[in-house]
Amino acid sequence: MDLQNFLASGVCIALLAYLVGSIPFGYLIGRFNGLDIRMHGSRNIGATNVRRVLGRDWGVICFILDFLKGLVPVILIGEWLGAQMAVGLEWGEMFAIAGTIGGHIFPFTLNFKGGKGVATSLGAILAVAFWPVLIGAVIWYITFLKTRIVSLASIMAAVSLPVAATFMFSLNKGGIHGTNIILMGIIAMLIIVRHKDNINRLRNGQENKFSKKAAKL
Hints:
Largest sheet: none
Shape: globular
Distance between the termini: 57 Å
Number of helices: 10
Number of strands: 0
Radius of gyration: 17 Å
């Protein structure tokens, strides 16, 4: 393998995916509704805060867009373009996953201050590992139903991804590769770090529970 061409291809794929990941859908939805979402609620551009401030429908739309922002670049840029370049399909997927998640969390469009990466991470990983994402989604749902705390559900889902992937890898099921597990572990740690303020509030019993009624401006 030509290392120079490999790295050049990887950087190209990661950069293209990063540009897609940097589209701040939550911020744009807020602007469409005449406000800066970063000035309301938790001040985050993610789907949870969009729902809290603007209501369920806008929150669902934001989640879907952020989810697709993770999924589509991995398929169209990572898999398709990677197969045409020196990096290859599997590594192309990895570079695209890293790029689009990095774009969401550190978007150049918002001075590198973005969301926490949960929806985009789930979409990106779904392209390479269906079952761990499904398990993570179930764990998120169960945790949320029991606690009504979105941040705790998100952290539990993030942790479950590399755990589920490792278990399936040990059983040789689901087409999981070692690089997938490593990347999921890194993503899980990044999501946890992005939730550090939520973790502190959880420890102090101060984290807000999600209300069925959206806040009104």
